[in-house]
Amino acid sequence: MASFLRLSNASGRQGRCVLVSIMSELIIEKITDYLNELLPSMGLELFDVQFRREGHGWVLRVFIDRDGGVTLDHCSDVSREVGQYLDVEDIIDHAYNLEISSPGLERPLRSVDDFARFKGDKAKVRLHEAIDGEKSFVGLIKTVENSTIVLELESGAPLEFTFEMINKARLVF
């Protein structure tokens, strides 16, 4: 760890930031491993784990998902399991708040499988490079084959692109 502290300026602040970032990543990794074992037995899947400082405290956010949506009972059950795991394993050595939720109605679309799962739903897609002078598009997810996605734009015109062309995408409610 001393090598990280050598990165610091005279005040030592930069080194602490690097060390905190590494510790946060290790915590996220351990919790992710645990959740990837736990959640399938509950009929759930892991969407994301975040651990960050907010205001004067720390927040551990776990986003869970499943076909058909996530209920309050699902969140409560996962919260109880994760809370017990964290108490026993003592991974986090300071105060934090634990939040369990679904990705939400306007969830990010992060894989080809996400696009296939939400076929027929409305999505907003931002591409890395422009098509006909535009980078952002909103439309219905019409087809998904391999990594090729077709949106039916609000004008009714089809827009075809590959998953690799996407910078950011999310559902639109």
Number of strands: 8
Termini separation (Å)?
46 Å
- CATH architectural category of the largest domain: 2-Layer Sandwich
Enumerate the strands of the largest sheet in spatial order, edge to edge or round the barrel.
7-6-5-4-8
CATH fold title of the largest domain: GMP Synthetase, Chain A, domain 3
Helix/strand order, N-terminal first:
HHEEHEHEEEEE
What is the share of helical residues? Answer: 25-40%
CATH class of the largest domain: Alpha Beta
Mean pLDDT: 89
Within CATH, the superfamily of the largest domain carries the name RimP-like superfamily, N-terminal
Number of domains: 2
Largest β-sheet summary: 5 strands, antiparallel
* Classification by helices and strands: alpha+beta
List unreliable stretches of 5+ residues: 1-12
Keywords:
three-stranded mixed β-sheet; 2 domains; 173 residues; alpha+beta; five-stranded antiparallel β-sheet; 36% strand; 31% helix; GMP Synthetase, Chain A, domain 3; SH3 type barrels
